[in-house]
Amino acid sequence: MAIYKPETVECNGETFHVYITQEELQERVSELGEELSRHYEGRNPIFIGVLNGAYIFLSDLMRHVEISCEVDFLKLSSYGDEKVSSGEVTDLKDIDADIEDRNVILVEDIVDTGLSMKYIVEKLQKKKPASIETITLLHKTEATRHDVQLDYVGFRIPALFVLGYGLDYAQEGRNLAQIYILDGE
Ligand SMILES: O=P(O)(O)OC[C@H]1O[C@H](OP(=O)(O)OP(=O)(O)O)[C@H](O)[C@@H]1O
Ligand SMILES: Nc1nc2[nH]cnc2c(=O)[nH]1
């Protein structure tokens, strides 16, 4: 079965090229899974993925976690079909699990302005978990304006629009197996 990983890709009339390869992604995700396994041994953590973007990273990550753990999802949106944040977070789905006294690992695909991560951590804190740590595959360090605590980061990247491996452009491109960046950037 073919994996979808062209060198360049057209999405919504714009051209993107490979920025982080499938091999680089898989190696880093595996390292992160091993690190979490060591840190959370015996603590039965619950992974909370932020839909839609984090679904591929989370599913790959969990397959490298070699301890007992659980998973749940919440869904929000702040970008709509645009490349820049609307500046407002819309709640689309809450978690179902009771996380009181649980060790929570919040999983994001990307932290850009930091608005979504800050919003979610504050929302989850109200449910009285024993702990919350955060993990993001990508962090746009120079774009982050909100005060967020990032405990595990896959890759630090420049403030440029990226696509693939769960990240979309107007809902397209999530199925790409690599991370792509706009041509000319
Ligand atoms: O740090 P920020 O500026 O808040 O950006 C990060 C958020 O943007 C993306 O979500 P998006 O709103 O695009 O929804 P999606 O995951 O469904 O694509 C991504 O999944 C993060 O949740
Ligand atoms: N696809 C995509 N979604 C984002 N959400 C916040 N930043 C980005 C980005 O660079 N690409």
UniProtKB/TrEMBL annotation:
Keywords (A to Z) from UniProt: Cytoplasm, Glycosyltransferase, Magnesium, Metal-binding, Nucleotide-binding, Purine salvage, Transferase
Catalysis performed (reactions): IMP + diphosphate = hypoxanthine + 5-phospho-alpha-D-ribose 1-diphosphate; GMP + diphosphate = guanine + 5-phospho-alpha-D-ribose 1-diphosphate
Swiss-Prot/TrEMBL GO biological process terms: GMP salvage; guanine salvage; hypoxanthine metabolic process; IMP salvage; purine ribonucleoside salvage
GO MF assignments: guanine phosphoribosyltransferase activity; hypoxanthine phosphoribosyltransferase activity; magnesium ion binding; nucleotide binding
Residue ranges occupied by any Phosphoribosyltransferase domain in the UniProt entry: 22-169
Spans traversing the lipid bilayer: none
One GO cellular component term noted in the UniProt record for this chain: cytosol
Subcellular localization(s) per the UniProt record: Cytoplasm
Pfam families per UniProt: Pribosyltran
Glycosyltransferase recorded as keyword: yes
E.C. number: 2.4.2.8
Xref: InterPro entries: HGPRT, Hxn_phspho_trans, PRTase-like, PRTase_dom
Annotated signal peptide: none
Essential cofactor(s): Mg(2+)
Protein's pathway: Purine metabolism; IMP biosynthesis via salvage pathway; IMP from hypoxanthine: step 1/1
Stored PANTHER family: HYPOXANTHINE PHOSPHORIBOSYLTRANSFERASE, HYPOXANTHINE-GUANINE PHOSPHORIBOSYLTRANSFERASE
Protein family (similarity comment): Belongs to the purine/pyrimidine phosphoribosyltransferase family.
Protein name: Hypoxanthine phosphoribosyltransferase
